[in-house]
From TrEMBL:
<feature type="binding site">
    <location>
        <position position="35"/>
    </location>
    <ligand>
        <name>molybdate</name>
    </ligand>
</feature>
<feature type="binding site">
    <location>
        <position position="194"/>
    </location>
    <ligand>
        <name>molybdate</name>
    </ligand>
</feature>
<dbReference type="InterPro" id="IPR005950">
    <property type="entry name" value="ModA"/>
</dbReference>
<feature type="signal peptide">
    <location>
        <begin position="1"/>
        <end position="26"/>
    </location>
</feature>
<keyword id="KW-0479">Metal-binding</keyword>
<feature type="binding site">
    <location>
        <position position="176"/>
    </location>
    <ligand>
        <name>molybdate</name>
    </ligand>
</feature>
<dbReference type="GO" id="GO:0015689">
    <property type="term" value="P:molybdate ion transport"/>
</dbReference>
<dbReference type="GO" id="GO:0030973">
    <property type="term" value="F:molybdate ion binding"/>
</dbReference>
<comment type="similarity">
    <text>Belongs to the bacterial solute-binding protein ModA family.</text>
</comment>
<protein>
    <submittedName>
        <fullName>Molybdate abc transporter substrate-binding protein</fullName>
    </submittedName>
</protein>
<dbReference type="GO" id="GO:1901359">
    <property type="term" value="F:tungstate binding"/>
</dbReference>
<dbReference type="GO" id="GO:0030288">
    <property type="term" value="C:outer membrane-bounded periplasmic space"/>
</dbReference>
<feature type="binding site">
    <location>
        <position position="149"/>
    </location>
    <ligand>
        <name>molybdate</name>
    </ligand>
</feature>
<feature type="binding site">
    <location>
        <position position="62"/>
    </location>
    <ligand>
        <name>molybdate</name>
    </ligand>
</feature>
<dbReference type="InterPro" id="IPR050682">
    <property type="entry name" value="ModA/WtpA"/>
</dbReference>
<comment type="subunit">
    <text>The complex is composed of two ATP-binding proteins (ModC), two transmembrane proteins (ModB) and a solute-binding protein (ModA).</text>
</comment>
<dbReference type="GO" id="GO:0046872">
    <property type="term" value="F:metal ion binding"/>
</dbReference>
Length: 257
């Protein structure tokens, strides 16, 4: 092979290799709470449409994502459904300096299958969610040991004096969307989820809304992950604060801060 031809071939091969790396690389990797799945997916599409870059999301319980980040999982942005798990990665020195902000607000509600005969419940001091479970039914909710929706739910039920009657009748799930699915399928007569989760499903209906005074404020903090791609993280964080992104969050029922 002639030297020029060989050099050209090597350059072409290198370009193909580098191009392949570019295709495989995500512009910004976003670890986001399961309850934000629909909103963040839509925002990612807008982000790409504006030619700002590509967003590759990973959705799970905030606790699962925080532990993955703590164990070195590659992430650029973390959006948590509570402050505890953001504090967890902050204590490990994994929050980009000056990047943390409170982004969203939410509510927790009780849901039943859409065709359930269950009447609406007045959620107040001393109310009895167990009465809606029948003899063998369980209350579907995120695991109160680590899933934010479940943690908020436990606090609310404790505050209202109703926790003891349901604590042994839970169907604790890995994240809030899994709890939603149990009720959608009719496998549980009652579920405790975010208002935003209930709003996206035609297979459930809200039968009770918890007063905001009975649990800590439901706040979603967001931050860049230290060690990630700081430039792309900053660009995506800035986009989350735009009117376009805020409109998407509001469309799905989130309060924006």
């Amino acid at each position: 092979m002639k030297p020029f031809t060989r050099t050209a071939s090597l350059m072409a091969a290198a370009l193909i290799f580098l191009s392949g790396l570019g295709v495989a690389r995500a512009d910004v990797v976003v670890f986001a709470a399961a309850s934000t799945t629909n909103a963040i997916t839509d925002i990612g599409e807008l982000y790409a449409a504006r030619k700002l870059g590509r967003m590759v999301p990973s959705f799970a319980s905030s606790s699962t994502l925080a532990k993955q980040i703590g164990n070195g999982a590659p992430a650029d942005v973390y959006l948590s459904a509570n402050t505890k798990w953001m504090d967890y990665i902050a204590q490990k020195g994994l929050v980009g300096q000056g990047s943390r902000a409170d982004l969203l607000k939410n509510r927790i509600v009780l849901i039943a299958p859409a065709k359930s005969a269950l009447t609406d419940m007045v959620v107040k001091q001393g109310f009895s969610p167990a009465s809606a479970l029948g003899e063998t039914g369980r209350l579907a909710m995120g695991d109160p040991g680590h899933v934010p929706a479940g943690m908020y739910g436990k606090k609310a039920l404790e505050s209202l004096g109703s926790w003891d009657e349901v604590k042994d009748r839970l169907a604790p799930m890995k994240d809030v969307r899994a709890a939603l699915v149990l009720v959608e399928r009719g496998e549980c007569p009652l579920g405790l989820v975010y208002a935003t989760d209930a709003a996206i499903s035609k297979k459930v209906r809200v039968v009770g809304t918890f007063p905001e005074s009975c649990h800590p404020p439901i706040v979603y903090p967001v931050a860049a992950v230290k060690g990630g791609n700081a430039e792309e993280a900053r660009r995506f964080l800035d986009f989350l604060q735009t009117p376009e992104a805020r409109t998407v969050f509001q469309k799905y029922g989130f309060g924006v801060r």
